[in-house]
Amino acid sequence: MTDSTRVSPEPATESPAARPRADRYDPKAVEPKWQARWAQGRVFEVDEDPAKPKYYCLEMFPYPSGRIHMGHVRVYSIGDVIARYKRMRGFNVLHPMGWDAFGMPAENAAIKNKTHPAEWTYKNIGYMKSQLQRMGLSYDWRREVTTCAPEYYRWEQWLFTRMFQKGLAYKRLGTVNWCPVDETVLANEQVEGGRCWRCGAEVTTRELSQWFFRITAYAEELLEGLDRLTGWPERVVTMQRNWIGKSVGAEIEFDVEGSSEPIRVFTTRPDTLGGATFMSLAPEHPRVAELAKQGGREAEVAAFVEKVRRQERIRRTAEDQEKEGVFTGAYCVNPLNGRRMPIWVANFVLMDYGTGAVMAVPTGDQRDFEFARKYGLPMVLSVTPKGEPPLDPAKMTEAYTAPGVLVNSGPFDGMDSEAAKDAIAEWLAARGKGRKTVSYRLRDWGISRQRYWGAPVPIIYCPDHGAVPVPDDQLPVVLPEDVEFTGTGASPLAKLERFVNAPCPTCGKMGRRETDTMDTFVESSWYFARYTSPGYDRGMFDRLKAKYWLPVDQYIGGVEHAILHLLYARFYTKVMRDFGLVDFDEPFTNLLSQGMVIKDGAKMSKSHGNVVDPDALIDQYGADTARLFSLFAAPPEKDLEWSDQGVQGCFRFISRVWRLVVEEPDLWRDGPEVGVSVDREALPRELAALRRKTHATIKKVTDDLDGFRFNTAIAAIMELVNAIYLAREAHGTAGAAGSVLREAIVAVVRLLAPFVPHVADELWERMGGRETLVFQNWPTFDPALVQADEVLIVVQVNGKVRSRITLPADSPEDDVRAAALADARVREFTGGKPPRKVVVVPNKLVSIVV
């Protein structure tokens, strides 16, 4: 790849003001001019056109936090290049933008600044929109959506009522982080060191009645669908696969002494059942209190459960977290061997996984091993290495988790552990004590938020009819704005009587409106569909328009959204499909996950003090330079290391291209598209080489853009610009030279159009081009010219590169072999000995073995 510092002979300190000539490149004059032209001409507005192939290009929409940052510049530049390129390739391109506008940051800012979240949000949207427009992004702003607008969230409320009626939305107790001072639920990221991020109070866990979406009903389909997402990065697919976490195993019932209700566990290792010596329950397990009472240890168990409630849930399962527990005093029975097993409560068992109960096999699981050693619990071997003496539990230093043969397992002793998994599951099923089953790590999506700034859950609680969905003609349930923010306590909605008090839609009795709002992931799970018809008021979207545009052809966004957002959008798409709204299964055909922006070895952020302000960058160098650097400095999927010198180099390169056009006005008397009329055979060698390079560059940039290799595409254009300067210096601009130079410069400007659209359109106009390059076709290349007349062939001797030879392209193999063996450098290393073997790779390599 060409180093940007080698692009121009100008000093590295050149800035927009450094060149005194009146016709120097001035982005402050060029960029506002073309942004106004594009807006006035409505060039990016698009409607359905069955006569053209469609292409839906979408970047993940931003949260309106106040200002864009370099991460925004990078991802939106990537999307804009793709959208502009596809337009020039003849596609009907949809490229929209909007705002993920609900969420806690706005509410917290309202509390801090004594303003309303709506005022804070819309003010930020206005400012950030102006920043994005300064970048020259090719958005159809008619399609702008704002998720906090009632006309948007009305339709997710509408779908919620359908999901409720089908059992896909339901309410049950769920465990949440709870701040006792602010009296509010906290997200995991708002718990810092076990304390509330805002007031510093020690956080506990609490069971609250929460709304859930039954995403687990689609677990298998979500998993199987990953195999068809061939346009997604493998690491994202793997992350989703692991999050869904399919496990094949057995559900086993353990009878509880003194109770008719057994404890059920799920395990992927039924082969280790013979080594199960105690039971571990999650502190949140619904039977903990009952078992503690039965065992006469209510006080001890209650104290332990309260202690665990104060621990961060994510820390409870960490490998370095101390394993702690308490005995309930109750016992259950191992169904394989009748062993009496004490029932414990353990801090590392979570209710969110499996059944919240674990059969503990200390010799086969490391956590159980550590727990048993700490509390002196029995250890019985169930699997031992094949062909070796049985392990001695008393001498084991860690659990044995590999396959082997069974011991202490009754009728299954001596059986291979893998075969025993099915055999034991079948044995249990025959006795009514278990069954083979599949479990998923995936849990239902908890969408309740006990906060204000979100879409209200459209439910009214009636004393006679329970939870009743709000009828369609009463939607949207509008979030009231006349609320008071105190900074403490529950959502202000709960204190607003005119909102809370509502008649039951079924019987008319006065009921109580739900005051929970929906998780903001709900809004971002379907916004891509709303863009197809944002003003539509008879449904979530116009189904005919959605049928034309959807699914999204190219989705672009950070890998931090690889799991939840993408998983929820996939789930929501399947729900919409099942309600007849769409006819496809997956929302995003292709996915590009861009890397972060790094400066001084750390992610660019305010907390690291290494932020580069995009506005300041655009003020100094222009949006085209900011775009070009963000695209050139690294492949899109890799992290981008910030470089002030790299930014300056990109500005210098744009200036060099500018001078190619403005310093040679005679070249453009007949416009840019007159073509090359000279005889190819009559051209001097250097001009013929420039023609070949022009067409080879068009092919290279086309191929690279198809593969999202933006950095190498830009490097190829830079190399062509260097070649143009050398040819102009050697041959001038008269006659055939002018014709060849004109063709090359036109190619450069058109190839640059997706990357630096302002300057490309300005130069196109100065060259006499009609309209904007947005409406021009992508340049094509002559295949005959792309074929090089000569090629450089590498010659290896015994696997090491020893020379390089230049030969006519597609030379016969015998000629290539003879030339390689005759080369003076090669002869030094062969010593004149006849070769044992010579392998010729056409136009690339000769490998000689002596």
Would you mind describing this structure in some detail?
The protein is an alpha+beta fold. The chain contains 26 helices and 32 strands. Strands 8, 9, 10, 11, 12, 13 and 16 form a 7-stranded mixed β-sheet that branches. A 4-stranded parallel β-sheet has the order 2-1-24-25, covered by helices on one side. A hairpin with a 6-residue loop joins β21 and β22. α2 crosses α18 and α3 (104-113) crosses α4 (117-134). Mean pLDDT is 91; it is low at 1-22.
Largest sheet: 7 strands, mixed
Low-confidence stretches: 1-22
Number of strands: 32
Principal-axes geometry comes out as: globular
State Rg. Answer: 34 Å
Q: Give the end-to-end Cα distance, rounded to a whole number of Å.
A: 35 Å
Structural class, by secondary structure, is: alpha+beta
Strand content: 15-25%
What level of helicity do the residues show? 25-40%
Mean pLDDT value: 91
Total helical segments: 26
Summarize this structure briefly.
It is built from 26 helices and 32 strands.
Which helices and strands, and how do they pair?
Elements: H1 27-41, E1 54-59, H2 70-88, E2 92-94, H3 104-113, H4 117-134, H5 150-165, E3 169-179, E4 184-186, E5 191-192, E6 195-196, E7 204-213, H6 219-225, H7 234-244, E8 246-256, E9 263-267, E10 278-281, H8 288-295, H9 298-309, H10 313-316, E11 325-333, E12 340-346, E13 357-360, H11 366-375, E14 383-384, E15 405-406, H12 417-430, E16 434-440, E17 445-446, E18 448-449, E19 459-462, E20 466-469, H13 497-500, E21 501-503, E22 510-513, E23 517-518, H14 527-530, H15 543-549, E24 552-558, H16 564-578, E25 588-594, E26 597-599, E27 602-603, H17 614-621, H18 623-632, E28 640-641, H19 644-662, H20 685-706, H21 710-731, H22 735-752, H23 757-766, H24 783-786, E29 790-797, E30 800-808, H25 813-822, H26 824-830, E31 837-841, E32 845-849
Parallel strand pairs: 1-2, 1-24, 10-12, 24-25, 26-28, 29-32
Antiparallel strand pairs: 3-4, 3-7, 5-6, 7-17, 8-9, 8-11, 8-16, 10-13, 11-12, 14-15, 18-23, 19-20, 19-22, 21-22, 26-27, 29-30, 31-32
Helix pairs in contact: 1-23, 2-18, 3-4, 8-9, 17-18, 18-19, 20-21, 20-22, 21-22, 22-23
